[in-house]
Write a structure and sequence with these properties.
935 residues, Rossmann fold, 17-stranded parallel sheet, plant defense, LRR_dom_sf, WHD_DRP, Disease_R_plants
Length: 935
């Protein structure tokens, strides 16, 4: 991956020298020479990266090249930022002090120039070493795939509907067998176990069973929890209980205050009383089950536990009535069928001779996959991008080479990991660091694409020359393209999708993560510490062998005293520091908890989320971390916003959505952070005067803006703004005039939330909405004036959330005519208190696919006319205490795939049971999720 590192550094140095050329005048010659040497080096790195596993000398040399490139970037940027800072302060100095400053700065220039020259000499010597090891120079990095960068970019911009649902082969009989055992009334099993090695598709099978129509109709309540290796018993019990009873906010607080024994007893009684299906996915050890089982009844009940595991001892559970289902690998025909689905689109294959040759090669390669769907999918991800027979032959030769390398010292399925490694080596240079960055996420976690893309951009992993396909395309857009390509290559799985069809959440399979961790270690890309009490000498040892530690992910141990246990010389090289804090963790001392972070001098990324210590102060020294691009303290209980944050002139993302119990005072320093792209202000804050934001020309996201502390004219000057969340806390003067002057800017906003905290702000809230004609997502909270018919002319509006808006009943006539609305949520008193009936009229909501109506008491009837919501596939009716009967019109919703009913009266629950008088209205729905009734 040295090719990627050198390319990243070159891009960074180029951008910095262009933007900050005036600050590098004293060392410009040395910087130019270093840049040239890196460009020469690039030609050798593709071959060098490929040869690392074959020659230890090459591996060590590549590690030194990575270090030298990173050191060069740190030195140049540090010097440039220091000169910039000095020149800003110099205007206040007198003539004598100015001469002294120039003399000292001259010494700095000489020292920095010498350091840059030393690194350049080192890089030149390393290039000579590579040549002596017979490393070949490859001129064009992008030519290997036979595809121009423009063609690549256009292909990346395509949407891939197939990634939402993975092609499944060979599971049909497994699904039917398991469903039969789950829904039978006699000789029932307490536990149903799916057993098999990693990558066989256990989770996929469990998910298909979980969503099966017969299963949904048989059980009344459902819960799914992924256990994994690093689980917490209490967290697992809490998660199951909350899902089974569809817990309200108040119930969640009650559960949080329970002891472990009380939670176990409550869960035991729920499982004994109700007919529940609980999925425990990915249990590794029998001890894990032994710790969890106290909450699961060991007597005859109508509830069932379905678990997936790699461990036969876990699957068997001697002390339980268990049905054991061993999942088998795919046979030869099934393996080929799956490979064809992923690697050979039917529309692209018309030459029978070519198909026959590919089948011959593919069948030989499939021998190494051992029938594992995951390995087949990953191999297909490589082959799907190879069109010619020659390219398939090359992949086949590489597969043989990978497998042969492990002959004689591999376990039965060791070859699978080598197929996965092949998929990594096949990645283009710019995707390798993006993929390795995924290794810092905990096992079995789903990560948000919106956060991941910000981290990639902050780290400089996204190249500016990859972009500019269109005028308004951002670096984040390019990063999302990279996510899509990793999905297309089957290295990343889609978790959840957004309302506009974008990928919202992702995850990686545990075998892929294992490979990712191994590669990250080999490349000295990232180190994970599972406890800060670990001996830091291991970090130093690794640094001496494979390079300095540049990125550190810390999984804080519940018993740890501090976030940072000791100062270490390696800290000075770390550029990315991500903490994963367990919810239960409380430090022994909150004073100075974050102070040791000042040791990380060149840090670019700092993520300390979920830090629940009530008196933590953000030290003023954080203002010295001038390299920071990404700072997130989300859901941490921080009480101060130090003015020194204004020194972070490189900051791109500031997420200050802290859990503060008092109004935080924010000094007017954000205006200095001119590189900000994403700004998330605290939920509660005050400002002395007004926040000046007009200098933030790069800002794309602005959350929790208060009209009381900001001039809306400033928002109108933010020409790159795409997401805005604004709270109307005070009346806006001359609003119409302001909106007219800023209309062209506001029309570029794609996601808008307006929260009205005033009794008189209804008209102004609607005025802001009508000034944002390009929005895709709109959320309105609090009282609002009548909806305007102009919303019918909003072609992009696909998601609308109305919360406590107090609309009149006739406003449904406007909502139902929104042409492209696909998601609608009506929460709380979305309509005024005297509204008793909501009518969904014939022909209305023609594009709606998802509807949620929840948390209201005054609505007594929902009326669905035949022909309404013809495309609706998901419906949620939750916490409607006033509802007395289910709409007869539900039977007209023939496309409905999922119906969720939670928090309803007990008599309504009886009406929708199999023998209930309303069951006929919903019996056609494949997936029914019915929560615990209200008492």
């Amino acid at each position: 991956m040295a090719e990627a590192v050198v390319s990243v550094v070159l891009e960074s140095v180029r951008d910095f020298t262009i933007q900050e050329a005036k600050f590098l005048s004293g060392v410009s010659r040395q910087v130019e020479a270093a840049q040239t040497e890196l460009e020469f080096m690039q030609g050798f790195l593709k071959d060098a990266d490929a040869r690392q596993g074959q020659d230890t000398r090459v591996q060590i040399c590549v590690a030194k090249i990575r270090d030298a490139a990173y050191d060069l970037e740190d030195i140049i940027e540090t010097y440039g930022l220091k000169v910039d800072s000095k020149k800003k302060k110099r205007g206040l100095k007198n003539v004598i002090k100015r001469f002294a400053c120039f003399f000292k700065e001259g010494l700095d220039v000489h020292r920095i120039g010498a350091e840059i020259e030393n690194i350049t000499t080192k890089i030149s010597a390393l290039r000579s070493n590579l040549q002596s090891y017979n490393i070949k120079e490859i001129g064009d990095r992008d030519s290997g795939g036979g595809e121009s960068s423009l063609q690549l970019h256009e292909r990346l911009r395509r949407s891939y509907s197939h990634v939402v649902e993975r092609d499944v082969v060979g599971l049909e009989s497994n699904v039917e067998e398991l469903v039969m055992h789950l829904v039978k009334d006699e000789n029932r099993h307490q536990v149903v176990s799916i057993w098999g090695m990693g990558g066989l598709g256990k989770t996929t099978l469990a998910r298909k069973v979980y969503r099966h129509k017969k299963v949904r109709q048989h059980f009344h309540s459902f819960a799914w929890v992924c256990v994994s290796q690093r689980f917490q018993v209490r967290n697992v019990w809490e998660g199951i209980l909350i899902e089974l009873i569809s817990a309200t906010w108040e119930q969640k607080q009650e559960i949080k205050d329970m002891t472990d024994d009380e939670i176990a007893k409550k869960l035991f009684l729920v499982l004994q009383k109700m007919r529940c299906l609980v999925i425990l996915d990915d249990i590794w050890r029998i001890n894990t089950w032994n710790l969890l089982e106290f909450a699961f009844p060991n007597v005859e009940t109508e509830s069932t536990i379905l678990l997936t595991t790699r461990n036969q001892a876990v699957a068997s559970l001697q002390n339980r009535n268990v049905f054991l289902h061993k999942l088998q690998p795919l046979n030869e025909n099934e393996s080929w069928e799956l490979l064809v689905k992923k690697a050979i689109p039917a529309r692209a294959e018309i030459d029978l001779g070519m198909y026959t040759k590919k089948k011959d090669l593919g069948t030989k390669m499939l021998q190494y996959c051992k029938g594992l769907p995951l390995a087949i999918i990953v191999l297909a991800g490589v082959l799907a991008r190879k069109n010619s027979i020659r390219e398939w032959v090359r992949v086949y030769e590489n597969v043989r080479e990978y497998i042969n390398r492990g002959i004689g010292h591999e376990e039965e399925y060791e070859g699978v990991s080598r197929v996965l490694a092949l998929s990594y080596d096949d990645l283009p240079y710019y995707l390798k660091p993006c993929f390795l960055y995924l290794s810092h996420y905990p096992e079995d976690s789903e990560f948000l694409v919106s956060e991941l893309t910000k981290l990639w951009v902050a780290e400089g992993l996204i190249f500016s020359r990859q972009q500019r396909h269109s005028l308004w395309e951002t670096m984040e857009d390019i990063a999302r393209d990279c996510v899509s390509e990793l999905v297309e290559r089957c290295l990343v799985q889609v978790g959840t999708s957004g309302s506009t069809g974008t990928i919202k959440g992702c995850r990686i399979h545990d075998l892929v993560r294992d490979m990712c961790l191994l590669k990250a270690k080999d490349e000295s890309f990232l180190q994970i510490n599972y406890s800060l009490q670990e001996n830091t000498s291991s970090m130093a040892a690794q640094a001496s062998q494979l390079g300095k530690i540049r990125r550190l992910a810390i999984y804080v141990d519940e018993k740890a005293d501090n976030l940072v246990s000791s100062r270490d010389e390696t800290n000075g090289h770390v550029r990315s520091l991500l903490f994963f804090v367990p919810r239960e963790w409380r430090p022994k001392s909150e004073k100075g908890l974050l102070s040791p972070l000042e040791d990380f001098k060149v840090l670019r990324v700092l993520k300390v989320e979920g830090l629940r210590a009530r008196r933590v102060e953000l030290p003023s020294e954080i203002g010295n971390m001038v390299h920071l691009r990404f700072l997130s303290l989300r859901v941490s209980e921080i009480k101060t916003f130090p003015p020194s944050l204004g020194n972070l002139v490189c900051l791109q993302t500031l997420d200050f959505r802290v859990s503060s119990y008092i109004d935080m005072v924010i000094p007017n320093v954000i205006k200095k952070m001119k590189q900000l792209r994403h700004l998330y202000l605290p939920w509660n804050y005050r400002v002395k005067g007004k926040l000046e934001l007009s200098t933030l020309g790069h800002l794309q996201t602005l959350h929790n803006l208060s009209s009381e502390y900001c001039d809306l004219k400033d928002v109108g000057r933010l020409t790159n703004l795409r997401k805005l969340r604004i709270t109307l806390s005070s009346s806006l003067q001359n609003l119409e005039e302001i909106l007219k002057s800023t209309g062209s800017t506001l029309n570029r906003i794609r996601s808008l939330m307006v929260k009205n905290n005033m009794n008189s702000g209804e008209e102004q809230a609607m005025q802001i909405v009508l000034s944002c004609g390009g929005i895709y997502k709109l959320m309105l909270e609090g009282p609002i004036a009548e909806l305007s018919k102009e919303l019918h002319n909003y072609p992009n509006l696909t998601k609308l959330v109305l919360w406590r808006c107090g609309l009149k009943e006739d406003q449904m006539g406007i909502l139902e005519k929104l042409p492209n609305l696909t998601i609608l949520e009506l929460i709380g008193e979305a309509f005024e208190k005297n509204t008793k009936i909501l009518v969904f009229s014939k022909g209305g909501f023609s594009s709606l696919q998802c509807l949620n109506v929840s948390v209201t008491d005054q609505i007594t009837e929902l009326r669905v006319e035949e022909g309404a919501m013809s495309r609706l596939c998901r419906l949620g009716i939750k916490y409607y205490r006033g509802l007395t009967t289910f709409p007869d019109g539900l039977r007209y919703l023939t496309n409905l795939k999922e119906l969720t009913i939670r928090g309803m009266r007990r008599e309504l629950h009886r009406r929708i049971e199999k023998d209930g008088e309303d069951f006929y209205k919903i019996q056609h729905v494949p997936s029914l999720v019915i929560g615990e009734p209200l008492d």
